[in-house]
Amino acid sequence: MDLEAVRTAVGAVQDPELHRSLSDLGMVREIEAVSDDTVRVQVALTVPGCPLKDQLTADVTAAATSVAGVEVVTVDFTSMTDAERTGVVQKVRGEDNIREVTIGKPGSKTRVIGVSSGKGGVGKSTVTVNLGVALARQGKRVGIIDADVWGFSVPKMLGIDRQPVVLDEMLLPPEAYGVTVMSMDYFVGDDQPVIWRGPMLHKAIEQFLVDVHWDEPDYLLIDMPPGTGDVAISLSQFLPRAETIVVTTPQPTAERVAARAGLMAEKVNQKVIGVVENMSWFTGDDGKRYPIFGEGGGQGLADKLEVDLLAQIPLLPNLREGADAGQPVVVVDPEGEAAAAFERLAAELDARGPRLRTHPELVITN
Ligand code: ADP
User: Fold this and answer.
1) What global pTM score does this model have?
2) I want to staple 112 with a disulfide (CB 3.0 to 4.6 A). Which of 20, 87, 242, 345 is the partner?
3) Cα distance between residue 326 and residue 338, in whole Å
4) Domain residues of the chain, as ranges?
5) Model pLDDT for residues 289-323, shown as the tens digit of each residue
């Protein structure tokens, strides 16, 4: 049995949270042949109670058995020392470990998109979550900040029920369906009231942007609190280049309330890029669309804000059921009407993103 080959194979496994190879992170420790066809692999975890141990075990086992002659793999774990862990944090964050908001700044490839609404209950979180998963399914790397401090719901909608791993002062956001999520929900008990003052909110948002290891996603979506206020102001200070989409329902009276969220975004210099109308219609068994909440609200708002109506999302019982069960509809029913609407929304957003300029007229010949 070629133990060096085993070390190479295991070293190439990616840490599921840090997205770096185990060899890069210095996590592969002892490797020994226990018998003719059995190898023992020891992996050093960054923190002892790593929630992704099972996945690591499976990935390491698969990598080791890919080496000729290895039939059985036993994986055991040890923990890194404080110094080793600090080394990992430095490696991941960059040697100088900049402690300021870099995401969304010039030079960063991350597009930051706030999802706003005039009032609660219109489906803003539902849109954030399903848009995030739809973007991830189109190959994008996506993070979500759940900044809706009056009702954190993003982790539950994605079935995330654990706290982030903390490495020194770096927080690793839990991931579900290809989307990493940071939420205050991780830190407050279920029925605990959360009382926020402006300065506390400001600090919390800053920490979410600075201390969380987002690892330069393509998209950072922000589930904004409904209405206008402190969070929008704080975010605009940290993320001056953020864009905004506004979610509304079809009834024309909702339009005025939603328009305020759009105007607020403009006031703090965040570009409104479009409107999403949610609960647009219910498609009956007869295939007909029933506009339960009226019609025209989304287009009316888009006209008022002088932007495009990016998508209309149908009202669907399995959308709510999925959200309650921690499974977004784009995962539960990927072929369905709502999933298709979210896929289109993701594509529309992507199409409106910054493009690399190419000059087809320039042809280099030799
Ligand atoms: P908000 O973030 O605006 O407060 P939520 O996304 O939490 O709203 O949605 C409110 C409720 O409506 C949730 O129970 C959600 O599952 C449900 N819901 C949202 N959009 C739809 C839809 N298109 N069809 C069915 N239920 C929906």
Assistant:
1) 0.88
2) 242
3) 16
4) 3-93, 111-352
5) 999 999 999 999 999 999 999 999 999 988 888 88
Q: What is the pLDDT of residues 245-279, one digit of tens each?
A: 999 999 987 788 888 888 888 888 788 999 999 99
Nearest protein CA to atom 15 of ligand 1, as residue: 320
Contact (Cβ atoms closer than 8 angstroms) between residue 272 and residue 266? yes
- Taking the CA of residue 338 as reference, the ligand 1 atom at the shortest distance is 23
Q: Is 320 in the pocket of ligand 1 (CB under 6 A)?
A: yes
Contacts of 140 (CB under 8 A, 6+ apart): 217, 218, 219, 346, 350
Structure-token pair, residue 278: 């949610």
- Quickly name the fold that domain 111-352 has: Rossmann fold (3.40.50)
CATH level 3 topology of 3-93: GMP Synthetase; Chain A, domain 3 (3.30.300)
CA of 317 to the centre of ligand 1 (A): 10
List pLDDT tens digits, range 40-82. Answer: 999 999 988 778 889 999 999 999 999 999 999 999 999 999 9
Q: Whose CA is nearest to atom 12 of ligand 1?
A: 123
Helix (H, G, I), strand (E, B) or coil at 244: strand
